[in-house]
């Protein structure tokens, strides 16, 4: 029975697959070593970012509503010559807002 080459992952882009198929065994080993080190680096960076996000959540302002993320900032909007505070944050490509209160509550 003849030896069969390995089956590549289905999600591997064609240009990478072609480049790997044209590479020498030595280069393939170098690529494998680099790819493993890069994967570990990216996983470590993601963990550090996640830990930083969790630290930010712990520093949640007292007046922040439960349905507003800790990363939200306060923005002032002017409507009909009146100024209002809004919590504002990004969810993907969209900017979300939630009413906080008037800038001058006595006015």
From TrEMBL:
Biased composition (Acidic residues): 50-66
Region (Disordered): 42-71
InterPro entries: DUF6788
Keywords: Plasmid
Ranges where the DUF6788 domain occurs: 51-105
Protein name (Swiss-Prot/TrEMBL): DUF6788 domain-containing protein
Native species: Salinigranum rubrum
